[in-house]
Amino acid sequence: MKYLVFVAVALAAGSLASSTASAETIRMQRTTPYADSSHIARKIRKECVGLQDKLSAYAEEFGREFGVSIQRVDKVDAADPGAVLVVEITEVVSRGNPFIGHRKYSEIEGTLYRDGEKVAGFVGARNSMGGAFAGYKGSCSVLGRTMKALGKDVAEWLTSPEDGDELGDY
């Protein structure tokens, strides 16, 4: 009988600890910066002005579906207390157009920190040809689809982050 009580208490404590860990809010920069080493075409930087805001917005949205609390903030630093996700856009490629077909590609790198210590990192990439009715979509809209898919990938990764993971089409 004592053994059963011990097991029940241990299981209850374990489930409480795991639910507390999953309830942790992860801060992510609202505007995802382009990496210093990136070579992203000037026309993308100039014309797709909202592209950098989409990743964190979609990560936050899909985070709710996966039970991950993501808070979008103006600035993050790896040394900040608590859980911080530092992400950069490392590549964005826009080839094609509505008439000959879209060929778009986005790539990101991210690292999750907890109280300044690295927990895990990932790389992620997504391709898009525009999906249904691609002939009626502009290039920035199709690139936005890649950020939406990457946002979902990031939110899902945060449920069980492993160092060195490759997300999406990587």
Topology:
Elements: H1 2-22, E1 25-29, H2 42-47, H3 51-66, E2 69-73, E3 83-97, E4 101-114, E5 117-128, H4 139-157, E6 165-168
Parallel strand pairs: 1-2, 1-3, 5-6
Antiparallel strand pairs: 3-4, 4-5
Helix pairs in contact: 3-4
Describe the structure using short key phrases.
170 residues, alpha/beta, 6-stranded mixed β-sheet, 6 strands, globular, disordered N terminus
How is this structure best described in words?
With 170 residues, the protein is α/β, with parallel strands linked by helices. The protein has one domain (24-168): 3-Layer(aba) Sandwich (Rossmann fold). It contains 4 helices and 6 strands, in the order H-E-H-H-E-E-E-E-H-E. It has helices at residues 2-22, 42-47, 51-66, 139-157, and strands at residues 25-29, 69-73, 83-97, 101-114, 117-128, 165-168. Strands 2-1-3-4-5-6 form a 6-stranded mixed sheet, covered by helices on one side. The model is unreliable at 3-21 (pLDDT under 50).
Distance between the ends? 52 Å
> What strand line-up does the widest sheet have?
2-1-3-4-5-6
CATH class: Alpha Beta
Please count the beta strands (DSSP E, at least 2 residues each). 6
Number of helices: 4
- Described by its quaternary structure, the protein is single chain
What is the molecular shape?
Answer: globular
Helix content: 25-40%
Structure summarized in a few sentences:
With 170 residues, this protein is an alpha/beta fold. The protein contains four helices and six strands; from the N terminus they run αβααββββαβ.
